[in-house]
Amino acid sequence: MPGVTAPTRRQVLSLYKQFIRNSNQFNNYNFREYFLSKTRNTFRENMNQEDPKVLVNLFKEAKNELGVLKRQSVISQMYTFDRLVVEPLQGRRN
Amino acid sequence: MFRSVCRISPRIASSAYRAIMGRPVVAKTLAQRFYSANVSKDQVSQRVVDVIKAFDKNSPNIANKQISSDTQFHKDLGLDSLDTVELLVAIEEEFDIEIPDKVADDLRSVGETVDYIASNPDAN
């Protein structure tokens, strides 16, 4: 593909930030922690990736996933969940 | 009946006017209270340090480190760019603000972050 430009550092960091922000919004502890660790692991896995083609694909894929994540976190906020034993009682506002 | 009300009302109005306009100093301080940032810089830095201390998921020994305003996220705390983003999200949530990407890119030390939050009128 001619004219493929890899996403810039700032774009990737901004995407990462949106993933973290939206994952934090989950009311359910298990979902929240799952998406946080999945986000961290996926981004770290590809930290040293340098092939622009692969990067473009990863970026596109991540953007789609961000859409799913956003929808699901909004849905998660429509329900209340009991706190799990492992969750601290204080510290989180919701 | 209405006439008496009319006769009284200018007097009330003028005294009310004097009550409001006679104390311009009060009005000014009120305005300042509404428009200035509502957290002091010391409070901001204390809360930022607390957030950093609590941020030990990724780097477990961060709680034992000495944190001053000169502390750099990368050099002193050993956070890489992804960790820094995550820490800034935690700080954003603490103060209920959103740091634009452009600014977040330039925040490299605790002091710079505290300065930015203290200058942000939305922070609380």
From TrEMBL, chain A:
InterPro entries: Complex1_LYR_dom, Complex1_LYR_LYRM4, ISC_assembly_LYR. Coiled coil: none annotated. GO terms for cellular component: L-cysteine desulfurase complex; mitochondrion. GO terms for biological process: iron-sulfur cluster assembly. Pfam families: Complex1_LYR. Belongs to the complex I LYR family. PANTHER family: LYR MOTIF-CONTAINING PROTEIN 4 (PTHR13166:SF7), PROTEIN C6ORF149 (PTHR13166). This is ISD11-like protein. It comes from Saccharomyces kudriavzevii (strain ATCC MYA-4449 / AS 2.2408 / CBS 8840 / NBRC 1802 / NCYC 2889) (Yeast). The gene is YER048W-A.
Automatic annotation (TrEMBL), chain B:
The keyword Phosphoprotein applies. Keywords: Electron transport, Fatty acid biosynthesis, Fatty acid metabolism, Lipid biosynthesis, Lipid metabolism, Mitochondrion, Phosphopantetheine, Phosphoprotein, Transit peptide, Transport. One of its GO terms (molecular function) is acyl binding. One of its GO terms (cellular component) is mitochondrial [2Fe-2S] assembly complex. It is found in: Mitochondrion. Pfam families: PP-binding. Pathway: Lipid metabolism; fatty acid biosynthesis. Carrier of the growing fatty acid chain in fatty acid biosynthesis. InterPro entries: ACP (IPR003231), ACP-like_sf (IPR036736), PP-bd_ACP (IPR009081), Ppantetheine_attach_site (IPR006162). Its main location: mitochondrion. This is Acyl carrier protein. Belongs to the acyl carrier protein (ACP) family.
